[in-house]
Amino acid sequence: MVVQAKKTAGVMGGMGPDATVDFMAKVIGLTRAGRDQDHVHMIVDNDPGVPNRQAAIRSGNDDVSDHLTTMALRLEQAGADFLVMVCNTAHSFLGGVEEATRIPFISIIDESVAEVQRVAPRGQTVGLMATDGCVDTGIYQDAISAAGRVALVPEEADRQALMSLINAIKGGHRDTGVQKDMRSIAKRLVDRGADTIIAGCTEIPLVFDGSGFNVPVVSSTDVLAEKTVALATGAEALPAKRSYMKGP
């Protein structure tokens, strides 16, 4: 294996702050380090002021893209070699980021769908646990379909319950009741035919990591952390810069 030069990760965070801290902790935990200098250099913009992504998608009033573009430019100007964003839903608003920056952006959506292929190569149906906005934009469903699989989203009652749970986690609630309810939603997806689950919101792994579950659970946070470590340590070369969809 050819080891590339180390790179600096620019982390677009704050959506929400706990999920960003969880991502950073996982990057640290995944890095093979015996001293401070072995760890990944992360420049983190933990900006909770990014407007509500759900509201922007529902209303069609995009007040998110410009905010994300400004954040991405701050990170690039601070010395980041590549960008990651610790929010699945916000991946619907990347057009301005692509136009304004010169460094590659690593998609949590693409990486999570690629991980499904690794953990369940014979699987056909992917259960998607994500916010209403993320589901409504179809960004995960499109990526899953392009990978030759079928996306299965929660039924309406479970979509509402999932959104309530995500908001509860953002509010600091992670008790056994929240954990149990999250697991129950995943189980109902399996009962309807899902052979893999994507935890496609970075709040979900804070209470449901798939331990002991009866099908593979892909944590979008974990997948992005693993990719970040690989790129930042030089185990993988940076990809070419690519284009992303415009906001809804």
Walkthrough of the structure:
Strand 1 (9-13), helix 1 (17-30) and strand 2 form a beta-alpha-beta unit. It is globular, with a radius of gyration of 17 Å. By secondary structure, the chain is α/β, with parallel strands linked by helices. Strands 2-1-3-4 form a four-stranded parallel beta sheet, with helices on both faces. A four-stranded parallel beta sheet has the order 6-5-7-8, with helices on both faces. Helix 5 crosses helix 10 and helix 8 packs antiparallel against helix 9 (176-191). 45% of the residues lie in helices and 12% in strands. The protein has ten helices and eight strands. It has helices spanning 17-30, 53-59, 65-78, 95-100, 108-119, 132-137, 139-146, 156-170, 176-191, 220-233, and strands at residues 9-13, 42-46, 82-85, 105-106, 125-129, 150-152, 196-199, 217-219.
